[in-house]
Amino acid sequence: MLTGKLKVAKASLKAQLIGLPLLALLILVLVSGARAQTSASNSPANEANWEARVRAFLQKRYKIPESSSIKFGPPEPSGFSGLVSRTVTVTGEQGAVAKVTLFTDGRSNKIILGQVLNLEEDPWAKVDTSGLALDDRPTLGPPNAPVTIIEFVDFECPFCARAFGIIEAAARNTYRDQVRLVFKNFPLRGHPWARGAAVAAECVFMQNPDAFWTFASDVYAAQPEINVENLRHYVDRFADQLKLDTKALSACMMSPEPEKLIDQDIRDGLKVHVNSTPTLIINGVPMAGVPDQKTLDFVVSSQLQAKAAREQ
């Protein structure tokens, strides 16, 4: 089971392209040649040497572009006999931050990266979405649906292309009238035409909200052929097919309005700790990566049941 999760984590990590690893898994890491800190080596020089060795190992293991983005907190009591803990913080290109706890016994060449889970906390690890801008975003489903899915995506992300149809089908068919799907842009810096596509999509939405979803689907379908040079050609072609006013669309794309909306989406994503695409927030429950149908059904059904139980 863990092997399968690691494979998914690696695939998702490649899709991020922002240098922020998925460090939330419990992983036992062999630090080759990197001695754990001992009670006799607490001097600043020895501590710096230990940090440098572990940092170099983590950078290579998790494919982190800049080693300077990896920071170590001070040693602290771990709450587990014989182990001390340190917080490892990794900062991504867009400012997203991931934190994980490092455990060491101070004697062996092994460390543990993972999370300390408190069984008294919410197991869904929900994030607060109350401050996010949702009302003016592309939406499917009724505004009062018991489940809201917020989808943070990038038009150039191949994993987003795979997820788009799954999530849209859930909102239109499987959970019709039970789910509200809200689309938010989160273009990654490593994708050169993603933001341009997001600008065009925002302008399509402003002109004809119903046409937005067809336009987004068309962009994802043509994703392998689109590049920076021909993006505008595809935008114009899709706009013609949707019978949009192309002159008004061009004027909109040159205005600051769509850029402001995209920047708001990115800020909202960072508020709820989005660091990869696609990321779904389902009634506050975060899900990163392409959702398989069973997992999506489990989370949505659980939220529907919880909502029904609260209303009884």
Overview of the structural elements:
The chain is an alpha+beta fold. It folds into 2 domains: 16-114, no CATH class; 139-311, Glutaredoxin (3-Layer(aba) Sandwich), CATH 3.40.30. The chain is 42% helix and 17% strand. The chain has 9 helices and 11 strands. Strands 1, 2, 3, 4, 5 and 6 form a 6-stranded antiparallel sheet that branches. A 5-stranded mixed sheet has the order 7-9-8-10-11. Mean pLDDT is 85; it is low at 1-41.
CATH class of the largest domain equals Alpha Beta
Order of helix and strand elements from N to C terminus: HEHEEEEEEEHEHHHHHEEH
Calculate Rg over CA atoms. Answer: 22 Å
CATH topology of the largest domain: Glutaredoxin
Stretches where pLDDT falls below 50 for ≥5 residues? 1-41
Shape: globular
In which range does the helix fraction lie?
Answer: 40-55%
Biggest β-sheet, characterized? 6 strands, antiparallel
DSSP helical segment count? 9
The N- to C-terminal Cα distance equals: 37 Å
Number of domains: 2
- Structural class assignment: alpha+beta
Mean pLDDT: 85
Q: Per DSSP, what share of the residues sits in E-state strands of 2 or more residues?
A: 15-25%
CATH superfamily of the largest domain: Glutaredoxin
Q: What's the count of strands?
A: 11
The CATH architecture classification of the largest domain is 3-Layer(aba) Sandwich
Give a quick summary of the entry.
With 312 residues, the chain is of the alpha+beta class. The chain is 42% helix and 17% strand. The chain has two domains: 16-114, no CATH class; 139-311, Glutaredoxin (3-Layer(aba) Sandwich), CATH 3.40.30.
